[in-house]
TrEMBL record:
It is found in: Secreted. Keywords: Cytokine, Secreted, Signal. This is CCL13 protein. The keyword Nucleotide-binding does not apply. It comes from Anhinga rufa (African darter).
Amino acid sequence: SVRSSYSMCCYKNMFIREKIPASRIRDYQKTPPHCSRKAMLVEVLNGRKFCVDPEEGWFQEYQWQKKSTSTST
C-alpha cells in the first residue's frame, strides 16, 4: 500500500521556527499519535510541508482565528 505523505512524523531537525503567513497556509494536520513528537504538519500553497510546534504562539493564534472565522454566525 502507498503511504500518504500525511502519515509523516516530525523529527527535531524538521521543525521550522519562523512564522508562516496565514495567507500561504493551505492546510494543516496533526501528526499521527504513534509519532514521538507532537507536531502540526502545515502545507503551504506551493505544496511544501513544514513541521510546526503546536505550542508555537503564532500557530495557536492562526488556529484561533481560523476557528472564530469558521464558526461566526
